[in-house]
What does this fold into?
Amino acid sequence: MNALLTSYLPMLILGLGALAVFVCGALSPTRGTLFRSIALLASGAACLSALAMVPDATQTLVDAGPYARFFTALLCGVAFVCLLFAGEYARLRGFERDEFHALILLATLGMVMLAVSTDWIMFAIALEILSLSLYVLIASRREKSLPLEAAIKYFVLGAVASSMVFFGIALVYAASGSMDLAASLVKSGTQGTGLLGMAFILIGLGFKLSLAPMHLWTPDVYQGAPAPVAAFLSGGAKVAAFAALLRLAMTQSPVWTAVEPALWALTALSLVGGTLGALTQPSAKRMLAYSSVTHVGFMVLALLAVGTAGPGPAMFAAAALAVMDVAVFGCLGLLSPIDQDADLVDGLRGLGRSQPGVAGVLALSLLTLGGLPPTIGFMSKLVVFKAALAAGYLWLSVIAVAMAIVGVFYILRVLAALYAEPDENAPLPVLAAPGASGWLAVAISALLMIGLGVAPMPVLDAAALAFKTIP
Amino acid sequence: MNACPLLSAVTFLPLAFALGALLLGKRPDACRKFSLAAALFHLGFTAWAMALPLPLIEDAAWIPALGARYALEMDGVSGVLSLMTSFLTVIAVLVSWKEIGEKVGAYHALIFGVATTALGVFLARDLLLFLVFWEAQLVPMFFIIAVWGHEEKRRAAFKFFLFSIAGGLFMLLAAVWLYLAHGAMTGTYTFSLAALMASPVAPAAQGWLLAAFLLAFAIKTPIVPLHTWLPDAHTQAPTAGSLLLAGVLLKTGSYALARWAIPLFPQASAQYWWVLAALGAGGLVYASWVAFAQTDAKRLVAYSSVGHMGLVVLGLAVWKTATLEGAVLLMVNHALTTGALFVMVGMLGERAHTREMARFGGLWKSMPTFSGFFLLFAMASAGLPGLGNFVSEMLILLGSYGTAPLGAALAFGGLVLTLAYVLRLVQAMLFGESATDHAYRDLTPREALILAPLAACVVVLGVAPWMILDLIRGPLKALLA
It folds into this structure.
């Protein structure tokens, strides 16, 4: 009983937290600080309780081993930092409502479930909880047209993707007769039904991951979504979908090996397409969206090497992506004027001088995206290349390096804009102070980016532990 | 001897000072004074470390899961280059005293950042640690050029960064490959330089790996034809930026060639040494030829820098005791002379707001002190006997004559060209007809104070090169063995 409780504890905390926010919202709808405190408390507590999860063999729906512990802690941590980033941002823009905070918690619940589920039903429910919450979160700024457009786009495409996943699940079930994730893949064989099912699941998850060519929604949605929500989307939802995909990859079942060549092509396409797409974007958020497509390609490169290197490198890459994407979008949000998110790269001109603190961390996170030492981005490159080369993916690694070099160009564009002289004709936007929670989020991000770049051992160890315990 | 945490202090003290400079950013004068005191302290500290029995070693576990260690070592060669780095940091702070008026705190912090990353490159003895410092070098210099540079600073900074990262990332891939190949061969996965040198990978793989490492080092050194970022970066950078680029960052490239690329892949470098030698000697001739065509004094010095580094590369490629000694000695001398020339062109630029050589002439009449110093450094750069460069150039030429007569002959031709364009520079600037009636002010005491130690070093190293040769001979013997 005790073990059963602890393996579900993070999810329980998140769910109860969401309920508490809704109840408080019903009683007094204007107490934004209270909602925020509850949400922060719940995500923080869920993160801590994840560290205490005990593996429990008696139930088959979720995994509570080190793999689940790693991703649960990571995802709850992402939610916590995103909430910190969203704090002042949401208050000043008038969407610090109960549903915003409750939906962040519910989406986190969906993400955690997606990462830990070992059963297709659980998996499907998780995907829907996550997607439905995100549709609404993207539209949190109801009075603006861009977020609404983004939400509708994400909703239409997301619903199609979800149905593809469900159809795939049905086919896999039909081929294997099992609802257990690993067992069904192993049993489903490589012909007909099972392979088709796997392909559908891959397409659906590829959409959530924005793996090219299923990435076309990404720039529009990231541009439209409020910056902290974009941070949550790319640092959280993406990592959760990746955790699910990684769990499928770890089965190394015949059906998985059969789709690996396709995944090779998708990886190459993501690396090239994301980088080229980002290269000439005048909009900073669209550029970062394309850059996150590249980084997903990079993560999948590590995922392809699971057979020889284990999930460790992929998990490290996922953690790195979460840290840097949350930081980059979060800081962009803090540097945005109230009426509209900072969008054009040229609109960031001179902010390095007027807002040295936040702009400094934004610059740091851009360098992390570029993979420069001593940041976690560099370590992630190293670990992934090590895995990919050991697994024999030389050409994919060479493509990744070439794209990383090209990618540095757009990163430099933003860096140069940040520290350029301010435009004399266009006065600098008046920005609100980040507030205590904003500063805390900025500090945590900077600390994680540098700290894990210099001393990556804790994360590497946690990821290595997962390799030992998952078959 | 084990010197924990002495070497860490040598490496990271500048970074700590950077923090101090940032905090004092609001009070420019205090920030300058603090930076000068800090840089002087670091110079003293490095010199003190050098006075201890070398080599100093520091070694601790860093990322056990990857077999990466936090390993630093200061032997004669890395020590000399470290000392040169901290010396040039002092000069860099001094020359920026008047030139840099805005965001003084960030500027000095970045200068200290350059120092720490370069010191890390010189001292690291673990491939991963080396890579971290190597790539981190780009960041402070990018900002120094992009924010405080001249008219086309943005383009120059981009070019510098993209060239360097292109080399660096392929080297990262090759380093991981080397690590895996070495691990598969010996059973121990390690990034340690000593271990990787002890059992080199199969000769078949070495060629590609050497090519990837060379790409990175050739861009940074720079070896013709990968030098095109350098004239732009030098021309657009503020004076201290040019000084540190020429004096410190270029040296990390040639030093890494000698410390990492050639020792890690002995068979491949024994097979392809002539490619490197040809590029070095050819680069010297080419760059000296191009230097003739320059009208901008700073660009001319930049091309002369490319030429001299070509000679260093020739020396390293030949890989003999004499040429190696000459190459390391030339690294130091080149840092001093070219650094000084950049500083002097910068001083002239502050007065005249132009660096076009046609706008000067007859400076000797109005600025005798300046002209005296300029003549000294120009002559040193051309290799006048009795001044620093001469000994090193002779060592390289004589040493390489036996193995690479053609390369040595080519290099000799290049040196003649060097002499010619240096004479042209001196003639155009100091003598000849004055282009304007305007008389520029001679050096201030502060400026003379900056140049005096540089001049002293150039003369001392010309007269008594054994001071450095004694230090580097032992470690170079070990490299050759």
